[in-house]
UniProtKB/TrEMBL annotation, chain A:
Coiled coil: none annotated. Keywords: Antiport, Cell membrane, Ion transport, Membrane, Transmembrane, Transmembrane helix, Transport. Pfam families: MbhD, MbhE, Proton_antipo_M, Proton_antipo_N. This is Putative monovalent cation/H+ antiporter subunit A. Residues 690-773 form the MrpA C-terminal/MbhE domain. Its main location: membrane. GO terms for molecular function: antiporter activity. It comes from Pararhizobium mangrovi. Residues 778-806 are annotated as: Disordered. Residues 132-417 form the NADH:quinone oxidoreductase/Mrp antiporter transmembrane domain. It comes from the Bacteria.
TrEMBL record, chain C:
It is found in: Cell membrane. Belongs to the CPA3 antiporters (TC 2.A.63) subunit C family. It comes from Pararhizobium mangrovi. This is Na+/H+ antiporter subunit C. The chain crosses the membrane at residues 6-21, 28-51, 71-96.
Length: 806, 140, 125
């Protein structure tokens, strides 16, 4: 591809995000008709990708991109082959119809702009996900779809059920995404390859690595959570809290298929390994059967469809993992068929809900006359879902049955799963498509009209496509299914199944499926009660488990916080000083670094000893002082002793500063403390006194030994010598200390005087809050003054009131 | 409490003396013990003593500027002293010296001295502000 | 000489830690002040001690003509003294204001930021 085409692809990938930014303004400008304009975005992307179909049909694939984070070896690179192109068509094609549908469904909703914006954001994320080549890019878009899904499920965020469902989906799929990230990073580490296209070409390294199974399981974490495989399926039915366009788009046609997409994408890497061919069919098969059984139990149109979606995803996973050309072909055909019929059926369910006001299947009936177009779309989709000719679902089902038809227990088990699942799904599909429209119309429904064109165009198109694709099977296979199967298998492959039935076991199995399906359809009500009874008997499921998990998490973190932050300063201080003492003493003892026993210094003078003694006396006096004034004066004594020590040891500057500071400290301490009515002294219980004293002595001894050890060693005077040598010659000052402060380290000093000034301002602020508060306290009794905005600092007052109220 | 007659009488003189001394300490700081920090502390103590002796309002009147304003000016001078060197094409805070002659006497002037003066003002202003505000509460 | 100072500094640290372990905010404040002195002395001593020769270059010389006290720790400590004073003043006012608002100087009774028996946060969504 030339550069222009690559630029166009990048533009196409960016377009949904741009449209998302514009959506709210367009809606404000044009109301729900903005959907017509916004639908042009996905439509033009769809058109952009059409030329690729020819390339891909010839067995080629396209990669292009540019450096994104070169230091991390990460590129923004896309990879277009049969698989990603089919997904790109599904995302943008169905996306176009969904945007239109949303225009009608959300018409007049005050947040319609936001909704369309989220839908387009999701579209961009999903498109990026399926086109990603680089691992990290794949992960980023993967999580973006989780986030946008969160936003869309929680769209109606004022309802608790929505919030719960949104959070649940985010937690489950987001956690799975992290697993996927770990898996991809592991693969990157093992193989040194960080792009999907690269990995597909050199997978031997990974297969022979001891980390193969770990990498596989981590990747499956991502795929299974996203594609709602049992037992991580529970978020999907709850996600039906979202508005119906979201359910149709994200939670049936596209996002939930991301997991399947990932499995298909990595099939050439992982296939033909025992783990792959065991784990996938088992989980897929379980999901298929459980999903189908659970869907029968529901009576809400969307819930029924949600569980069959789960079931279909299980079928796809099962077929992908089962292996073999026909199995993969079945999975691929089913994937396309499912996107078409399930999208259509969800939109139908939304239309029925929108027009009739309920989705409860037991309360619906007889809408055929009022909504013929919708009924036609529903019928076409249901035919495909039931696997009946002449729909593409039939092709998929035939392919699946013929690939599973082997006379060994393993294959027969999954064949049984497939038959049961398909039969139940067929029954449910026809319940959704027929029950609301046929039979007697309940009086409660009132007057119902056909949906507007903007709404029925989506399901009608998708339903019709499901039939057309099957009738024009050779063409469909050439541009869609065969390239996709080749991409999934990693080698060229052709699909040739058509609507012309071949007499054989698959056809017989289809007949069996239809019979079971019809029986279930007719006996749906007792069946529903039976499954419901069994579930009630079990009583506990992963859905409730999630609630308990969240509650437990909150309680646990609360308990941990309570333990770590008991709110007692004394505890914090004790912990801190015990840690300090340990940090000082333990390493010295463990590593034998204790200082040697010092000898009495020869050069110590009487004056120095006296000053030290005065300092220590001052300290002791502070400790045992019984009244404040003694304590303050004693504090001054130790401070002056320190000043004298500085003087004696050749630091006149320090000495003067210390003198001034001590004098000022004593003065302001006296000023403040005489105004407090404090208990005269400490009354700690004796036990506490002893333990505190032990900690204090340990700290003191620690610092003492540490300092002795430090001063025992040799002294590196390089820096001091530097200052001594250059203080006069460069900085023209005789007082080296002052030169360091104002010249050599002037920038430090600038910072330090700023700190001094800030503390000064803080002190003034503290005092002023006091003044304000007194004012407002008086005002409290006077309601007229309470909300006077001119009153300075009324904000501070409110804080106090709030605190006191607690 | 501490406003004895003798103290009140002596305080203004003591304050003036300390202020003069503080400037002296500031200026000699580059070559002998002293400097902006010590000078500023002496000046702040002077105002604190005046405030204790004669009350806070006379001090505030005598200062004319609010003490934090003085500190702010000091911080500004300190920053300006640093910035001047930028205009000379050398890194921030590089000391620059000039040696003008006044009446035949060479007077060394430097951005470093300006900076030290800034330190002096910040310390004086801030600590005076703290001391005065605490003394003020005494009167309530 | 340094070893002797180390003993004195150890006593400074011990006393300040003991005071800071008190419940009473004023005692903690006294402890903080002493801690400042202890740390300053620690830095000072770690730079080695010389008797009575300030780090000032004599008139007419370009470098000190005899061994002087180490100027580097002195420069560090000088600013540290002023900063620790301003923080001491801040803590003092803070303690004073806390006392005025809450009527206590016992840190166990100051529980506005971390109230006792705080209810469990909401468990729903």
């Amino acid at each position: 591809m030339n550069v222009g085409a690559a630029d166009m692809t990048l533009l196409a990938m960016a377009l949904p995000f741009v449209a998302a930014g514009l959506a709210p303004y367009l809606v404000r400008l044009m109301g729900h008709r903005a959907a017509w304009v916004l639908a042009l975005a996905p439509l033009s992307i769809f058109i952009h990708f059409i030329p690729y179909a020819g390339l891909v049909a010839n067995g080629r694939h396209v990669t292009a991109g540019f450096d994104w984070v070169p230091s991390l070896d990460t590129r923004f690179e896309w990879f277009v082959d049969g698989l990603s192109l089919t997904f790109a068509f599904l995302v943008t094609g169905i996306g176009t119809l969904i945007v239109l549908y949303s225009g009608g469904y959300m018409k007049g909703h005050p947040q319609q702009g936001r909704f369309l914006s989220f839908i387009l954001l999701f579209m961009g994320s999903m498109l990026g996900l399926v086109l990603s080549d680089d691992f990290l890019m794949l992960f980023v878009f993967w999580e973006l779809t989780s986030v946008t899904s969160f936003l869309l499920i929680g769209f109606d965020h004022e309802r608790e059920a929505s919030r719960r469902a949104a959070l649940q989906a985010l937690v489950v799929t987001g956690a799975g995404g992290l697993g996927l990230l770990a898996g991809l990073l592991l693969i990157w580490n093992v193989t040194g390859v960080h792009s999907l296209s690269g990995l597909l070409q050199s997978n031997e390294v990974l297969r022979q690595s001891p980390y193969f199974l770990v990498a596989l399981i981590l990747v499956l974490c991502g795929a299974f959570t996203k594609s709602a495989q049992f037992p991580l399926h529970f978020w999907l039915p709850n996600a039906m809290e979202a508005p119906t366009p979201v359910s149709a788009y994200l939670h049936s046609a596209t996002m939930v298929k991301a997991g399947v997409f990932l499995l298909m994408r990595l099939n050439p890497v992982f296939a033909d390994t025992p783990a792959w061919h065991t784990i996938l069919p088992i989980f897929g098969g379980m999901t298929l059967v459980f999903g189908a059984l659970l869907s029968v139990r529901q009576s809400d149109l969307k819930q029924m469809l949600a569980y069959t979606t789960m079931s279909s995803l299980g079928l796809m996973v099962m077929m992908t993992g089962f292996g073999g050309e026909h199995a993969v072909a079945g999975a691929v055909l089913y994937l396309v068929a499912h996107a078409l019929f399930k999208g259509a059926l969800f939109m139908v369910a939304g239309i029925v809900d929108h027009e009739a006001g309920t989705r409860e299947v037991t309360k619906l009936g007889g809408l055929l006359r009022a909504m013929p177009v919708t009924f036609a779309a529903a019928l076409a989709a249901a035919v495909s879902m039931g696997g009946l000719p002449p729909a593409v679902g039939f092709l998929a089902k035939e392919e699946i049955y013929s690939s599973l038809w082997h006379l060994d227990p393993w294959s027969l088990t999954f064949l049984a799963c497939a038959v049961i699942g398909n039969a139940l799904m067929m029954a449910v599909g026809f319940v959704v498509a027929l029950k609301p429209f046929l039979g007697k119309r309940p009086h409660a429904l009132g007057d119902v009209h056909e949906a507007p064109f903007i709404m029925w165009v989506g399901p009608a198109t998708l339903g019709a496509l499901g039939i057309v694709a099957a009738i024009a099977a050779p063409f469909t296979h050439e541009i869609v299914s065969s390239p996709m199967v080749s991409a999934v298998l990693g080698r060229a492959s052709e699909i040739d199944i058509t609507l012309v039935p071949h007499i054989g076991p698959p056809l017989a199995l289809s007949g069996l499926t239809i019979v079971v399906g019809i029986v279930t359809y007719l006996a749906i009500a007792p069946f529903r009660r039976a499954v419901g009874g069994v579930l009630r008997a079990i009583g506990w499921g992963p859905d409730r488990g999630f609630d308990q998990f969240v509650r437990g998490l909150v309680r646990f973190s609360h308990a941990v916080t309570d333990r770590l932050q008991p709110g007692s300063l004394e505890v914090y201080m004790t912990v801190t000083f015990v840690a300090i003492a340990a940090a000082l003493l333990v390493p010295m003892v463990v590593f034998g670094e204790l200082p040697s026993m010092p000898t009495w210094p020869t050069d110590v003078t009487f004056y120095e000893l006296t000053v030290m003694a005065i300092g220590i006396i001052g300290l002791v006096a502070v400790l045992i002082a019984h009244d404040r004034l003694t304590a303050i004066v004693s504090l001054g004594v130790q401070g002056f002793a320190v000043a004298l020590l500085f003087m004696l040891f050749g630091a006149p500057d320090l000495s003067f500063t210390q003198f001034m500071i001590e004098a000022l400290s004593v003065v302001i301490l006296a000023l403040v403390m005489t105004r407090l009515r404090l208990a005269p002294s400490d009354h700690r219980p004796t036990g506490e006194k002893l333990s505190d004293a032990a900690i204090a002595i340990a700290c003191g001894a620690g610092f003492m030994l540490y300092l002795m050890r430090v001063t025992e060693g040799s002294f590196d005077a390089t820096l001091s010598d530097f200052f001594a040598r250059y203080s006069k010659t460069i900085a023209h000052g005789h007082n080296i200390v002052n030169v360091i402060i104002v010249d050599f380290r002037g920038t430090d000093t600038l910072g330090e005087i700023s700190v001094v000034m800030v503390t000064g301002l803080a002190i003034l602020a503290l005092i002023r809050i006091r003044a304000t508060r007194t004012d407002v306290e008086l005002g409290d009794n006077d309601p007229r003054e309470q909300h006077d905005p001119r009153e300075e600092g009324s904000h501070g007052k409110r804080t106090y009131a709030g605190v006191e109220a607690e | 409490m501490m406003r004895t007659l003798i103290f009140r009488t002596v305080a203004p003189y003591l304050t003036s003396l300390m202020l003069v001394f503080s400037v002296f300490v500031l200026l000699r700081g580059h070559n002998a013990p002293g400097g902006g920090f010590i000078g500023g502390l002496i000046a702040a103590s002077a105002f604190a003593i005046y405030g204790i002796a004669c009350g806070v309002s006379p001090v505030r009147r005598a200062l004319r500027l609010h003490p934090t304003t003085i500190a702010g000016i000091g911080l500004l001078l300190g920053s300006v002293a640093g910035l001047i060197s930028l205009f000379d094409g050398v890194p921030f805070m590089t000391g620059l010296w000039i040696y003008p002659h006044f009446f035949g006497v060479e007077v060394p002037l430097a951005t470093v001295m300006l900076f030290d003066f800034g330190v002096y003002l910040v310390v004086t202003g801030t600590i005076t502000a703290i001391a005065l505000v605490l003394e003020e509460r005494e009167g309530e | 000489m340094e070893a002797l100072m180390a003993v004195v500094i150890g006593i400074f640290f011990a006393v300040s830690v003991y005071l800071m372990l008190s419940k009473h905010i004023i005692r903690i404040l006294l402890g903080v002040t002493i801690l400042g002195n202890a740390v300053n002395l620690l830095i000072f001593t770690a730079g080695r001690i010389v008797h009575a020769v300030p780090p000032i270059i004599g008139e007419g010389n370009d470098v000190p003509n005899r061994i002087t006290a180490n100027p580097l720790p002195q420069a560090l400590i000088l600013t540290a003294i002023v900063i620790s004073f301003s923080f001491f003043a801040f803590l003092l006012v803070l303690a004073f204001r806390a006392y005025q608002e809450l009527g206590t100087d016992d840190t166990d009774e100051m529980r506005i930021a971390e109230p006792e028996n705080e209810p469990v946060p909401p468990l729903g969504y």
